[in-house]
């Protein structure tokens, strides 16, 4: 069956393989330095993705305060770019980029309007460049972090056509005439491969399976990029039956 409507959503950042048994939850008293405490005010959710962990930390008000990546389950070796949010208003306050546990790349501060207020550039843990809004000459060395979403070969219209042409309504359900939405979360690795499909709104097991089957059979995507470097990404796909 051709889906009636296909909605497409693309957040900036992303991830890869999700296995239910590899999802961890625990409490922290300090999410910035991973200080665990059973009575901590912060809840961390971590998903094992290939050879690293992708984590999100929430405060007592259920506001996301950090998004981070680690190469070990002790959460000591930081990877990729970590995002830090204001705990009261939820806006992005800071991005720090890491490689093998060391600062490597940009370390950027933002105000509530989203303007860059300070930035530093690190290489293998060493500071090599910095800029601050306190410096009178605000035109010098202002940095913009560029984000590019992953793209299906041929673009969004080609992706919608691919789904429309390949999704089939299961024969076993034709008498039941079940209709509604399946919403899937799609994980794209830095290689452009779809590594996992997670159903976040189920309609029927057979319809869920059909969505997963078709999406996983997708050709390689052009991976998401951050400042020219391929990064992992997730996006949400809605399919109407």
UniProtKB/TrEMBL annotation:
Keywords: Cell inner membrane, Cell membrane, Membrane, Protein transport, Transmembrane, Transmembrane helix, Transport. Gene3D superfamilies: 3.30.1150.10. It is found in: Cell inner membrane. Residues 154-241 form the TonB C-terminal domain. SUPFAM superfamilies: TolA/TonB C-terminal domain. One of its GO terms (cellular component) is plasma membrane protein complex. One of its GO terms (molecular function) is energy transducer activity. It comes from mine drainage metagenome. Belongs to the TonB family. This is Gram-negative bacterial tonB protein. GO terms for biological process: protein transport; transmembrane transport. It is a single-pass membrane protein.
